[in-house]
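Q: How would the C-alpha cells look for this protein?
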Amino acid sequence: MQETWVKTNRRALACATVVPLLIALVGAWLAFATRESTAIWWRALSLAILVAAMALAAAIVAQFRQPRIAFENGQVLFFLRSGPLIAVPVAIVEAFFLGQGPLMLPGSAGRKEETVNLVARLSQRATEWNEREVKPGFGRWHEGYITIRGTWCERLDGELIRRLNRRLREVSEELATVTNGKKE
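A: Here is the predicted structure in C-alpha cell form.
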C-alpha cells in the first residue's frame, strides 16, 4: 500500500478549480436558461462548454489524492510529470533537505520571486538516476538532485524534512534487515 510522504498543495489546486467551475456555470446557464427557440447549435455549443469545463475541473480535483512523494514496495515514488510516476529504489535516495529557487508560476517571468524547495539527494554511485525529464513547473532532476518546487507541495519546513529523513532511514533499515535476513 502506498504511503504518502509529501502531499500536493491542495490550496493551489482548489484555486485552480475556480475558473473551470465558473466556465461550467456559464455553459449551464447558456444551455438551460435560453429559450426554446434558440438554435440547436447554440445549445449544443453551450453543453460542450459545460462538459469540457466539468472534465477539466474533475481532472484537477483528481490530483488532490495524488501525492508529490510517496513510498511503496521499497521504492520512493516521485510524481513530477504528467505521465507515469518515477519510482526510485529507496537505497539510492540519501537525504532530503530544503532549498530555494524561482517561483515559476504563470505570469511570474522576469520577476525575482523565490519559493522554498524540497531537494532529494541521490547516491552519486547510481549514475543511471542522475537525470530524468520532469515537468519544469513541478521541479528539476539534474546531476543526482531532485528539486521539487514548494509551490506545488504541502508547506515545507524543518519538521517535514526531519519527518522525511526519519522515515527514509526507517524504511532503509527495514529493507536492509529483510535483505540481510534472506541472504543468511
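The helical segments are 10-32, 40-62, 158-183.

The chain has three helices and eight strands.

Upvote if useful.
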